[in-house]
Amino acid sequence: MSVTSRYRDAWEGFWNEASGDRGAVFWDAEPTLTAGRHLAHFEPHLTDAALPLIDLGCGNGTQTRYFAERFPHVVGADLSAAALAHARHADPGGLAAYRQLDAADKAEAQALHAELGDANVYVRGVLHQCDPDDRQPLADALAALLGERGRAFLVEPSQAAKTVLMGLAQGPAGPPAKLAPVLRHGLTPGAVPDEAVPEYLRAAGLTVLASGELPLVTTEYTADGTRIELPSTWVVAGTA
Questions:
Q1: How far apart are CA 232 and CA 160, in angstroms?
Q2: Is the pTM of this model over 0.90?
Q3: Can you say whether the dihedral through the CA atoms of 74, 120, 35, 81 is positive or negative?
Q4: Closest alpha carbon to 128 in 176, 83, 162, 175
Q5: Domain limits of the chain?
Q6: Mean pLDDT to the nearest integer, 142-161
Q7: Closest C-alpha among 27, 11, 25, 43 to residue 217
Q8: Could you write out the DSSP letters of every residue in 10-74?
Q9: pLDDT band at 1 (very low <50, low <70, confident <90, very high)
Q10: 102 in helix, strand or coil?
Q11: Count of CB atoms within 10 A of residue 189's CB?
Q12: CA-to-CA distance for 190 and 133, rounded, in angstroms?
């Protein structure tokens, strides 16, 4: 199973329009406020930090490059060719490798696993953007990438985040500048129940090893200068 062409086209349209400037995208916050915070919860559960690390849904690669300074072999994977073009342009020294991957296609994940072996995988805000029929296939593909030794860290906006986003979108001045393109390209967040995330993982044969809550930091600010942060939940998973 693979994602619909509508979904693929939406991401290509978004990333083709997006500026390559750092922080221009709504969720492209500084790694010290995003991946760095997540890594503090992820690293204690790694069975082998020398395994390849896949940044799944890497977008323009801001977080990927952060990981590449800390792990020996990092791969940024994304559905969008335009996103990967941004990532490669921002990484002229080749700190990381970049691969186009349909993360809802288990066969593609199995092929990448055959190439890399077991891997640790970081997933930030991907599941909630998937169409409902693609969520379990994504979890299944994630399990294929992990193999026996890999660990996954998933962080997703919680259900409460949708209320925050809709409030921003429906404000008297309209959505904030960096949120507007997300909505315009039909990338509105799906209503994934908080309790559904670990269930998708368990159905894929994975065990939830740890979980918690953190604010998901964005690059946008309210009219009074307050940085917009979305409530989020995180999960570490792997084979038992």
A1: 8
A2: yes
A3: positive
A4: 162
A5: 3-238
A6: 95
A7: 27
A8: HHHHHHHHS--STT-STT---GGGTHHHHHHHHGGG-S-TTS-EEEET-TTSHHHHHHHTTSSSE
A9: very low
A10: coil
A11: 19
A12: 12
- Which CATH superfamily includes the segment(s) 3-238? Vaccinia Virus protein VP39 (3.40.50.150)
Residue 64 has pLDDT above 70, yes or no: yes
Average pLDDT over the chain reads 91
9: DSSP letter = H
- 121 Cβ contact list (under 8 Å, min separation 6): 53, 54, 56, 142, 145, 146, 150, 151, 152, 153
The encoded tokens of residue 130 equal 């998937």
> Which tops the pLDDT comparison, 60 or 190?
60
Which of the 8 DSSP states describes residue 193? -
pLDDT in tens, 76-91: 999 999 999 999 999 9
Which one-letter DSSP state was computed for residue 186? T
Mind listing the pLDDT tens digit for each residue in 22-56? Answer: 888 999 999 999 999 999 999 999 999 999 999 99
What's the burial of 211, exposed, middle or buried (CB within 10 Å: 0-12/13-18/19+)? middle
Q: What is the distance between the alpha carbons of residues 177 and 155, in angstroms, rounded to a whole number? A: 24
106: enclosing H helix or E strand: helix 106-116
How far apart are the C-alpha atoms of 135 and 140, rounded to whole Å? 9
Tokens representing 192 are: 């994934």
Q: How many helices (H) and strands (E) are present in the chain, helices listed first? A: 9, 7
Least confident of 48-52, 66-70, 168-172: 168-172
Taking alpha carbons only, the member of 234, 230, 214, 199 closest to residue 26 is 230
